[in-house]
Each structure stands twice: as C-alpha cells, then as structure tokens.
Amino acid sequence: MTSGCKKTVAIIGGGVAGMVAARHLCDPSWGMSPTLFELSDSLGGTWVYTEKTGIDEYGLPIHSSMYKNLRTNLPKEVMMFPDFPHTKQGVSYMSNREILQYLLDYAQHFNIKKCVKFRHYVKDISPYGSQWKIVVIDLKANEERTYIFDAVILANGHNSVPTYPKIEGIQYFRGQTLHSHNYREPDGFRNQSTLLIGAGPSGLDMTFDLSTVSDHVVLSHHTDYASKVGFPPHVVLKPDVERILRDGSVLFKDGSTMEFDVIVYCTGYEYTYPFLSESCGIKSDHKYVTPLYKRLININHPTMAVLGILRHTPIFYLSDLQVRYFLQTLMRPEVLPSKTEMPKSSRRRRLP
C-alpha cells in the first residue's frame, strides 16, 4: 500500500489506543497515511456493550468484556485525551455508556472514521523487507486481502482473552462456571449462591452488582484491600480456594467449606497477538510482552509499536504519549538506540 511519499501505517484495533493512534495519524502535520482495521462494526473497543457472549455471526469470539452496570473506578479527569476534555460537569465517575459516547464524539471531532475499515479480521502480520505484509479478511465480502505498510501499531486491547486459574478438583463442581468476560448483568443470578474468584477491579465491581440480587455472594481473594471496600453486610469475604471436594463443595484455605450454584472467575486476561508471525520477533504471555523498548517499540523491528500494555496507568493519556513518541521515531529513526543498546535501556531499574 502506498500513498505518494507518505509513510503508510496500519493500526490494529479501534479501541482507546487505536483511536488515539488514528487521531494523530490523520493529522496532516505528521505526513502519514493510516488505515485502521477494526473487527467489529463500531469504534470503542471494550467500551462497546453487547448482550452477546461467545461467538459472533462470523464465528469469531466476542471481543467486548463490558457489563451493563459498569461505572468507572477512575475519575473522568484521567479518562480523557489531553486535547479533548469531557463536557459533562459535576460527575467524575462515569457509566460505560458515557465513556463510549465520549469516544464516539472524539472520533467524530477528529474525523477518524475516514481511515477505518470495519469488519476486517487481521489474519497475519509478517515483516516484508523493511515493510510489513498484513493479510486481512473482509468479513462482509468474505474476501482475503493483502496490504503492505511502512509501519504497524498494535492496539487490539488486552481485556478479551480470559485467564483461568487452575483449581484442583474443578471437575467435581456441579454448578455453572463462567469468566467475567462473559458476565453482562445480574438478573440471571438472582437468588443464586455465587462465588467470585479474584479481587481486581472487575471482581470488586461485580461483587457489588451481584449483591443487589442475591443474599449469598462470596468473594475469594488474597488482597489487603478487599476488606476495606465496604461491601453490603451479606457479602462474605473468603481466602483463596484450596480445592473443590468430591461432593462439589468448595474448600477454602482457611479450612471452611461452602456450596455454590455459580463460580465467576474474575482472574484477568491474556496479552495475545495471534496474528503475529514468528518472524515479527514478539513473544507474549499473560503478563509480559517482549522484547520492547520503553514497553512500546519492537526491538527486533522498530517500525512496530505495541500500545497500552503498561498496568495501573491512565490508558487515555498513556496511549496519546506513546503514539506521539512512536511517530517521532518514524520521522527520525536516529533518535532510537541501536538494536544492541535498546535491550540494555529497557531493563528494569532497581531503586536504591
């Protein structure tokens, strides 16, 4: 793919990170030509709520993990892009619908959609000389197409492929099990005895959500903060699960046992890039993506960036900074250290 003398850049994914990449690349001052490949028919990524779970009409996994009653656990002041403030005043913690509307307003303001190819499934990415070959499937047309780009930005998100814990004896459990990825709303759990495993943001929020429809909600965790959250009195906190007994009851590490109708795994997600060929030089597991310079740039192929994998950071501001830095390196490759020096610069520095 060529566009005169402009560098062509592929963006994989139309969530927060992909949208901010498109916003800057659509700015003519960068002198680049972007194409954003989005699997669904909408921008917004995981902020797009759908009642559907499992597989979509094209036989592909549903990407979004959004549940109906989610409200942000961060104030809107850190959930916005630096050049596009929220207009709503007086409320800091917003609903998922309000965040999605903010993202759609952002896309319209910066005319992002002009570079988006909706319903395009990225099948394979591989180096092609100094460029990149990307094979995609146009799902609506059911056609496979190949493109060539000068650079690639990976922004496919990391809240869609569940991580499951290994629980001894889980085959003996007689009730329903599901991952928080497939949780949508509490009504289906009314009066069900429910065990949630994991006290990350989703685990805490879903505990509150389910406590509105059931008097028997248990959160299993190993944190020092869950007891300080202030759950309703009927929510029970328990330590980690030891194992499932043969009678289907759950044995906790404190020696107590309880019976449940449902187990919900709130145990996080994998970093996954199934479309990357081995020749891209990127390895990932559920906690790490390597080798990256500044947790961003593919050391083996510096014209590839991986956005938004830092944890516990404001993703809106982070993605904006990462995109602008990466585009600077495309304009001036000499600002990057050599391939042999980048790994040294990327090692974790220990505080004295």
Automatic annotation (TrEMBL):
Its cofactor is FAD. It is an enzyme of class 1 (oxidoreductase). Pfam families: FMO-like. It comes from the Eukaryota. Gene3D superfamilies: FAD/NAD(P)-binding domain (3.50.50.60). Transmembrane segments: none annotated. The keyword Methyltransferase does not apply. Keywords: FAD, Flavoprotein, Monooxygenase, NADP, Oxidoreductase. One of its GO terms (molecular function) is NADP binding. InterPro entries: FAD/NAD-bd_sf (IPR036188), Flavin_mOase (IPR000960), Flavin_mOase-like (IPR020946), FMO-like (IPR050346). Its EC number is 1.-.-.-. Belongs to the FMO family. This is Flavin-containing monooxygenase. It comes from Lygus hesperus. The lineage of its organism: Eukaryota, Metazoa, Ecdysozoa, Arthropoda, Hexapoda.
